[in-house]
Amino acid sequence: MSNILDGIFKKCINNNNIFKNREVLRHDYLPDKLPHREEQITQLGETVAPVLKGSRSSNVFIYGKTGTGKTAVAKYVLSHVEFKAKEFNAPVKFCYVNCCMAGSEYRVFSGLCQSIGVYVPFTGLSVGEVFDRVRAGLDTLKIVFIVVLDEIDALVKVRGDSLLYELTRINETLCNSKVSIVGISNDLRLKEFLDPRVFSSLSEEEIVFRPYDASELGNILLERAKLAFHEGALSEAALSLCAALAAAEHGDARRALDLLRVAGEVAERKGSSVVTEEHVREAEKHIEHNRVVEALRNLTLHSKLVLLSVYHLNRANVHSAITGEIYDVYAELCGELGVTPLTQRRLSTLVNELDSMGLLNAKIISMGRYGRTKKIRLETARTLIREVFASDTRLGRLVEYEAKSLSKPANSRS
DNA sequence: CGTCCACAGGAATGACGGGCGG
DNA sequence: CCGCCCGTCATTCCTGTGGACG
C-alpha cells in the first residue's frame, strides 16, 4: 500500500518541473497587474477616490459577463483605497459580499455585520432586525463604508430589489457614517428587474466590462504563466489554445486560467516536461467531466430520479421525451423505491433546474391539437449517468431497470 | 376560424427545521 | 421552555397559450 503512495509522492516531488507556483492560476488569486483593464481601474479609482477625503463616493454599477475581471478590478481598487486610507488616516472600510454565495438578503446583511465586527446569528432574526444592527454598528464606527455586492443579479432575480432599496436609503438615517455601494452584475439586463428609483440611485456611475478577446486573454495568461510555470514548461501553442477556447466562450478569463492550470496538471501527471496543446484538449474534457460528475452527485434524490427517467425514456425512444411521459416513468421509479412522488408541478421546476445546470435540454413545443408541452432531451453523457448513479446505494438497481410505463404511453397515446 | 389539448409557470399557502430573545 | 420569525421545499389552485384539427 505504502509503496504505491510512495511512488506517487516521489513522482510528484521529482516532477515539479512544470509548476513554479500553481496558486497563481487559481481565480481567487489577485495579481498586482490586471492587463487590459486599465481603463476600468482608472474609472473606478476616480469614482471611489473621494472617500479618502472623508466624503461619500458615488454608487457604482459594474456590468460584464463572468470572467471579465469585474471582481478582480473591484477588489484591486478597493484594497488599494483602503491601504491609502490607512496612510492618510482616513476612516475607510470596504466589504465584499458575493450575493450568489450568500444566497439570501439575510446572509448578505449578516456578511456586512461580520465585516464591521457586529455579531449576528446565522438565522433566527428578521431581516429588518439584522439591517438595523448593520446601521447601528456603522453609526458607532464613524467610517466611510464601501459595500461591494458581487453577482447582485442572482439575488435580485430571486428575491427582488428590496435589499438594494434599503441599502440605497441607508445614508438618510446615518449620522456619523457614510455608505457607498458598488454593485456587480453578470447580467446586462439587470435594470429591467429593478425599481427605476433604486436603479437610478445605484448607478450614479456605470462601468462596463467587455469580454476579453483571444489576444487579450493570451496576454493575461502570459503574465500569469511567467509566475506559475517554470521557464520553457509551457508551449506557446498550448497557451494560445487556452486563450482561443476561452475566447470562444464569452471571453472568460476564469475559464482560460482553469484550462491552463488543469493542462499543467495533466502534463505533470503524464510526466511530460512541457505543456502541449494535447494536454489542453485533455484538460478541457477533464474540466467538463468533473463539472458534470460533481453536479450529478449533489442532486437531490428526486432530481436524480427525474434525470434517470429521462435517461430511460431516451433509451427506449431514441429521441426526446415530453413532460407527461417523464412524470409517468418518474412516478414508477418512485414506486420502486417506496418513495411518494412529487407533483407534476414540482417536477416541472426540477426539470427547469436541471436544464439550467446543463444536464437536460428542455424546449417548449406545441403539438397543436395535442397540447403544449416541453420536449426534454438528455444533455449528459449516458455513461456518466450510469457511472455516478450505479454507485448510489438506492438508485443503483434502477439504472438497469425496465420501466413498465415505457411502453404503455405509446399504446394509450396515438 | 374557433376549439381544445397538455401542459407552462405564477401566486398563495403550508409543513418543517433551525435559531432567536425572553 | 415558549412563541416567534426565518428560509426551504413542496402542494394546490390557477390562468395562459401555440397551433393542428375539425
Verbal overview:
The chain is of the alpha/beta class. The protein has 3 domains: 2-27 and 212-296, Orthogonal Bundle (Helicase, Ruva Protein, domain 3); 38-209, 3-Layer(aba) Sandwich (Rossmann fold), CATH 3.40.50.300; 299-412, Winged helix-like DNA-binding domain superfamily/Winged helix DNA-binding domain (Arc Repressor Mutant, subunit A, Orthogonal Bundle), CATH 1.10.10. The chain has 18 helices and 8 strands. It has helices at 2-14, 38-48, 70-88, 99-102, 105-115, 127-141, 152-159, 162-173, 196-202, 214-228, 236-248, 253-269, 277-297, 301-317, 323-337, 344-356, 382-390, 408-412; strands at residues 60-64, 92-98, 144-150, 178-185, 205-209, 321-322, 360-366, 372-378. Helix 14 (301-317) crosses helix 15 (323-337) and helix 14 packs across helix 16. The protein binds a DNA duplex (22 and 22 nucleotides) through residues 103-104, 106, 121-127, 129, 300, 322-324, 342-346, 348-349, 352, 364-374.
Summarize this structure as a short list of keywords or feature phrases:
54% helix, single chain, alpha/beta, three-stranded antiparallel β-sheet, 8 strands, DNA-binding, disordered C terminus, 18 helices, Helicase, Ruva Protein, domain 3, five-stranded parallel β-sheet, Arc Repressor Mutant, subunit A
Q: What does this entry show, briefly?
A:
The chain is an alpha/beta fold.
